[in-house]
Write a structure and sequence with these properties.
Layout lengths: L10 H20 L2 H5 L2 E8 L5 E3 L1 H12 L7 E13 L2 E11 L16 E12 L2 E11 L13
Parallel strand pairs: 1-6
Antiparallel strand pairs: 1-2, 3-4, 4-5, 5-6
Length: 155
């Protein structure tokens, strides 16, 4: 459990969000762009490590199909929820710390950590849409060398 977890909604909502984060890691580790994108909203906004912005499910899926077929092919993702907050019912703010290993090379402009991994903080904003939680904003940033960051357990 993340150090700053606080909820104002049901335990079921928290469990659903945790399940989405777990499913993301499992799909990444299979190189499954469809599974990784499953919870992304039709009109969601995504910003990647390079600062590129994508709007919509189709663009998010296409970007991850490209990544899983190239630079991130066969890479492994570990991620842990560091922050989980529900500012109001039906709205979740989730920040994870991640470690991606198995890269043949780092993305341009990104430095590996001491273990040769790409470390990031991923911020996702999710909204409940009917019975499902959807990612409406996804912002990933690399952690710079020397910035203290907890190790993801990957669970």
């Amino acid at each position: 459990m993340g150090k700053q977890t606080r909820t104002s909604t049901s335990a079921a909502d928290e469990q659903n969000i945790r399940q989405i984060v777990s499913e993301q890691a499992e799909a990444w580790n299979r190189g499954d762009a469809v599974g990784f994108s499953r919870h992304f909203a039709a009109d969601g906004v995504s910003t990647n490590l390079r600062g590129q912005s994508f709007i919509g499910y189709d663009a998010f899926l296409k970007q991850h199909q490209f990544l899983f077929g190239s630079l991130f092919r066969n890479s492994k993702l570990q991620q842990d929820i560091d922050v989980l907050r529900f500012p109001e019912p039906g709205l979740a703010v989730v920040e994870t710390v991640t470690a991606v290993s198995g890269l043949g090379q780092m993305p341009p402009g990104v430095a590996p950590d001491a273990k040769g991994r790409l470390r990031t903080r991923l911020l996702e904003v999710m909204t409940r849409q009917g019975d499902e939680w959807k990612i409406v904003a996804y912002h990933n940033i690399d952690i710079k060398p020397g910035v203290p960051t907890p190790e993801p357990r990957g669970d």
